Amino acid sequence: MHFDELLGVLGEFGPYQKFVYFLVCLPSIIAAFHMVNSVFLLGIPKHRTRLVCIVASFFMNFFIPFFFNLHRKLLTNAIRQKNIYIMQCNLCSDENIPLKSFDVIRIIYTKSLTSCICFLDRGQSLINARKHYHLPSWTFFASGEESISTGCKLPYYPNDTFLSQGAVHDDLVKAFIPTELNADNEVTYKQCYIFSTPGSGNITGGPEQSCSDWVYDKTVYENTFASEQNLICGKAIWASNAKMIFFAGVFVGALLLGALSDKIGRKKTLILSVLGLLASSLAVAWADNFYLFCVLRFIVGFCCAGTFMSAFVLEYFFALGLVLLCLVGYLVREWKYNEIVLSVPSAFILVYWWLLPESPRWLINRGKFEEAKVIIRKIAKRNKVEVTEKQLDSLECDETATGQLWHLFTSRVLFVRTIVIFINWCVVSMVYYGLSLNSGSLAGDFYLNFFLTGLVEFPAYTLCLVLLDRTGRKKLHCACMVLGGLACISTIFTVLYLEKRHQIYSTVILAMLGKIGAAAAFAVIYVWSAELYPTVVRNVGMGASSSCARIGGMVSPYIADLSTLVDGHFGQALPLVVFGASSVIAGLLSLILPETLGANLPETIEDGKAFPNHEKKSEKYQENGSSITMNNEAFSPEDSTKF
Fold it and tell me: CB under 8 Å to 501, separation ≥6 — which residues?
């Protein structure tokens, strides 16, 4: 007796299978945390060059007279005594010395050779002071009689912030930071440059120069790994690379963990994946450089591939994970603590070692009949059915012939269908993850937009469940891809032609419609492609399709980050246009594929070539002289434990 026959006795989806299926669904929530957490780990806040990053070649001949004229009230003493300048102001502070309201900072430097030294003066005379505080971080070394060629940090606003600290701070920012017009013709400060000499009034500052220290807006994030490591300006592509490396880990994990599960079992592979995920995700929080961060994120992606699979119910749990991720991101805005909070739930999955059984089908096919019988008895007891020892003793391995991937390219028909399936998997994954990663570039509230990208998946999957067996796979998938793609493309018109106050709603609505289309198409293509592949190559075909999806995920960060490379309104809409155009093209290509609803699915390569016009197969199994009706669907309930 084959296991499929015994399932007819046990009940294909009884209480026991429902319990196991629910357990298998839960890791999808955790997988969602890590699959899209790049939005919070590698988000780039608004930023500009830090004021203390100014090169001081102009300091001796320009700094004192400039600030004396600009802030005369704040400079209480600026006189020249032979070759010594003495200046005191209350613009400075130091992290190591708490200043009182009446404290002033004195800066002394000679025009000859020596140095510029900062003192904290609390009312004593400069010469007879009983206690002076030397501030070495502000020490300034001269190199000549008339000019200074050595760069250093200037002694003002070491506590510079992105947000305004008042009128004096605003004047300093205007003097030293170049401005430009953004896409909405609003004056904004440049993010990567600073004047080498400051401007004053209507006079523009000196030549612009790049710098290596920035201040960040903390309105959305308290900090991210990208802001901590300054992955901006010339290093902006590094953030995209880090996102790509994560999806590369998912790609490799899907290949290797699938093979591992066939050798050691589904349960052991799941537990090993969860252990690796827990350890690597916690370690990410302590990554102190870009390369270590990427290595650990690769491992996180690798382990994520072993914790979930695609199916309608699982997609609901994945969407729930996205909604919960938004909540965690909103409440925990420091990237290290965010990563730790998202890592802890993996520990609870370790109890599956005692709760989750091994796959009986895998045990039987591996010849471990006694272990399989123990689990089958538990299933029968929970489902309140009886299984005789004779039925258990008659279990035998499924000796189904298997094919190789290259068999799908042995004829023109199979070749074209396989390529179209691969393209659709790649594009739908690229659009799905790309729209999630691009949520930070949409107008309006960042957290609300991200919340909506997860929330809209629930009606998307419900739509599929309602229409899949009514309209068929082909019409539904094509409609989702094309309509979702057109919605994304339409954002170019809202960005270019609508006023800014209308863009917030129209662009976000169109982007969410695109996400609905991508999420629904992702669910449909899984079922449709599995039904299109002949039985003998179904597993290998689905594995190859899943690999194409991971390639789409690896490409998605670069497209989502196009807005950082292209300026203006067009740059803002460009990622959505690329996603939309790709979706429309892939959706139209899917019309080449045949409909599978109500058809007898192909079992051999020859069936696949002739599908959907192949001859109807006879019933596969016979029991007690009567035929057992087999739905011949692409999946069995037992597949819910596969990766």
Answer: none
Give the lowest-confidence range in 82-96, 175-189, 486-500: 82-96
CA–CA dist 621, 631 (Å, integer)? 12
Distance, first Cα to last Cα, the chain: 26
For residue 520, give the nearest of 487, 554, 558 by alpha carbon. Answer: 487
Beta strands in 43-139 (DSSP E): 47-49, 77-81, 84-89, 104-110, 115-121
Q: Is residue 197 a contact partner of residue 29, using CB atoms and an 8 Å limit?
A: no
pLDDT attached to residue 485: 93
Give the angle subtended at the CA of 226 by the CAs of 222 and 229, to the nearest 5°. Answer: 105
Q: What is the 3-state secondary structure (H, E, C) of 128-169?
A: CCCCCCECHHHCEECCCCCCCCCCCCCCCCCCCCCCCCCHHH
**3-class SS of residue 193:** strand
DSSP 18-51: HHHHHHHHHHHHHHHHHHHTHHHHS----EEE-G
Q: Give the residues across from 179 on adjacent strands.
A: 189
Q: Taking a C-beta distance cutoff of 8 angstroms, is the pair 452, 512 a contact? A: yes
pLDDT digits (tens, 9 = 90+) for 86-99: 333 333 333 344 43
pLDDT at 157 over 90: no
Sign of CA dihedral 330, 556, 509, 315: negative
- Tokens 């489902």 appear where? 383
Cα separations in angstroms, 136 against 107, 117, 139: 12, 8, 5
- CA–CA separation, 138 and 94 (whole Å): 9
A 10 A CB-CB count for 438 gives 26
Give 3-state DSSP helix, strand, coil % of the chain, rounded to 5. 60, 10, 30
Running DSSP on this structure, what letter comes out for residue 414?
H
CB 575 within 8 A of CB 563: yes
For 287-317, the DSSP string reads --SHHHHHHHHHHHHHHHTTT----HHHHHH
Taking the CB of residue 97, how many other CB atoms lie within 10 A of it? 11
For 218, the 3-state DSSP assignment is coil
Q: 155-177 as b/e, with b when 16 or more CB fall inside 10 Å?
A: bbbbebebeeeeebbeebbebbb
Question: What's the number of CA atoms in the CB half-sphere (13 Å) around residue 362?
Answer: 22
Question: In angstroms, rounded to a whole number, what is the distance separating the alpha carbons of residues 57 and 408?
Answer: 69
Which residues, 6+ apart, have CB-to-CB distance to 9 below 8 Å?
Answer: 385, 387, 391
Q: Is 134 exposed, middle or buried (0-12, 13-18, 19+ CB in 10 A)?
A: exposed
Residue predicted with more confidence, 625 or 588: 588
Nearest-angstrom CA–CA distance, 315 and 312: 5
How many Å apart are CA 447 and CA 132, to the nearest integer? 49
Instruction: With beta carbons less than 8 A apart as the criterion, state whether 286 and 502 touch.
Output: no
> pLDDT value at position 90?
36
Cα–Cα distance between 20 and 12 in angstroms, integer?
Answer: 12
What whole-number distance in Å separates Cα of residue 579 and Cα of residue 131? 66
Q: Which residues of 395-416 are buried (b: 16+ CB within 10 A; e: fewer)?
A: beeeeeeebeeebbeeeeebee
pLDDT digits (tens, 9 = 90+) for 15-27: 888 888 888 888 8
Distance from C-alpha of 183 to C-alpha of 99, rounded to nearest angstrom: 42
Residues 6+ apart with CB under 8 A from 143: 149, 150
